[in-house]
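Justification of computing resources. Each target in the renewal requires a structure prediction run like the one illustrated here; the chain below, 348 residues long, is used simply to show the kind of job we budget for.
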Amino acid sequence: MRAVILGGGIAAVFTAYFLRERGFDVVGVGGEVSYPLVSLVLTTSMPHREDIELALRSLEIWKKFVNPKEVISVDILPRWVDLSRLRGVSYEVVDKVDGVRLAADEVAVLTRDYLIPVRDVVSRLRRELGFSNSYGLLKVEGRRAVVVANGGRIEGDVVVLVAGYKNSILAGEAGVRLPLAPYECYAVLLVTGRKARRYSIGDYVLGWYGRPGPPLLYIAGDGCGRVGEGPPPNYQRRLANLVSQRLGAAIPLYLKVGYCEVGPHGGPLYGKHPELENLYVIGGFNGYGSMVGPALAERLAELMAGRAREDGFRLEKYLGARVFDPCDVAERHDWGAVLLRNAYKHNE
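Resulting structure tokens:
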């Protein structure tokens, strides 16, 4: 069986990796994917057991290639939030965190996150699996999908569309509808104090999240923008002000605009497109590709090898979903946000 992979990021290379393990001949058309030099965070602090299972499995997979660095995760929440809903992860609730400013009506939920050098692993797998840097397009011929790259057609017994935020764009150009939507995401590189760089932080009171960067640096962001609109005015200054309220002096150095993608349920999707004989899709990681991407890629490879499982991430379940605004979708992975949302619903 020949599999053509259109895409070259985390989910793409691990899909190729697991398909090759299962005897597929893999051709990767990856484009030029650029990951930051800094490590990405893998957290198991998520509200749904399925997501936790995927994150734990992803951690096992990453450990085949690297030694993830452990870091303390600090989720800041109002004291009145009901924490009894937290399941599946060991945690500690505290009133004080060294180097982090908490108000009297706030608590911190401490867990353990992992820093993954994603760039190194993705680059290695692209080389080992023979991914090209060519940019490809999806094309439909009858009821079959093919990939067009460098002016030629690349056919496969199966074609896997796994191109990140470009999934819905490439599919739309080929006349294929997907229940996925792209959006802009932003991150600011800051100089902070030494203590701050020990923590991965989700601040659900002030509304930002952050993780340690290279020496002297910290990376923070807070949300979603529509593709093409760019960050809000004074974004760097505003983020630095939010971070400084928790961690002390924070000096913004650089603003990075990236692109993400999400499904209508606030998380990723994978599966076979029922309208085409050979097209499979995986995407919608919503910025959590390092956490659940490898494990979901493994599930897709199992599906393609004839060992399907039923779970909440199957593409086929959402093909009838209406067009949606990605910035209005609640993130299913976001532990603190789900707790707050449930608390507000309970109070209404």
